[in-house]
Write the structure tokens for this entry.
Amino acid sequence: MLNFISKLPHVNQSIFSAMTTLCSEHQAVNLSQGFPDFETPNELINLVYRKMLSGHNQYAPMAGLLRLREILAEKIEHLHGYYYNPESEITITAGGTQAIFTAIATIIRPGDEAIIIEPAYDSYAPCVKIMGGFVKSITLEPPGYHINWQLLRRLISSQTKLIIINSPHNPTGTILDEGDMQELIKSVQQTDIMIVSDEVYEHIIFDGHTHLSVSHYPELQERSFVISSFGKIFHNTGWKVGYCTAPSKLMGEFRKIHQFEIFSVNTPIQYALADYLQEEEHYLQLVDLYTEKRNLFSHLLQGTKFKLLPCKGTYFLLAQYGDISDEPDINFAKRLIKDYGVGSIPISSFYTQNMDYKTLRFCFAKKDDTLKEAAERLSKI
Ligand code: GLN
């Protein structure tokens, strides 16, 4: 028998794939995995088609199409006040998840420690472990999910190389405010700790709040990989295109890994995105679009037994079901699919210790009719 030892013995199929598969099996309304059920803009699809017809079908430059990187540099400067050099500080990636992997692989060596704030996106901890690192996590609790920075600082040791942050936050819908950013600065100042800042929901933020990017704060920018995604902005998560920004020295190391992992990303789509990004309305209008969807879905759920938590950003709404059942959230989420035909994600799957606060995540990046159908089914509980 071949002796083969798994690097990730405790990892199963991702909860997002598992719940989406279960939804298809039961023809449930799928509010689990985070993706829109409405189309990417026609104009953008036509642009890709035209770019293909005009012969942009071979490898893109390893770091991404320069024109796209130049436009991103301007966009980031306009929004956050820092100009990343498009030549050396921006890389186009095959989606946010690849950028997260590559950034973590750039930083973490065997024995290093990374601090993760849970609940957290499911890829962070496995990426650290694949690189031979150790995860230390702090646990946020509902309803506020506030970060206790003193507690976080207690986790820092001489081995700590990385803190991963995420705002707007998947799955809780919370955002980091100015106080949090100052606490983060206080936590890493005078250390060599690096930051991976997952900002893929940067344009989905509500009620007059503005997204605070680490790139706005020099003390953070100098040590950060910032991760962004086009899939979240232009409703095409299946195109798998994102990008990462970092100071040139760090980005140089990132690219050494990126080039052997992916080499380069889909060419015609990069040309199309470069054109489509010229119009800032194309991404700034997301605030209105998703504010309406959040409000509609929250309103529709008012009459149900679910207790809704505030959602300041992202396209996820958390709902507590403690008044309906005391089943573990994973069981309850499965039963919701099988008996009521609505898919969600149990929040315990975002905690390494699977903490169960009887809370589910619903994705409201859906057509109004889909949200209405889901709410009607949920109101039968
Ligand atoms: N980011 C998406 C979510 O949180 C899904 C990503 C994935 O399926 N890997 O649902």
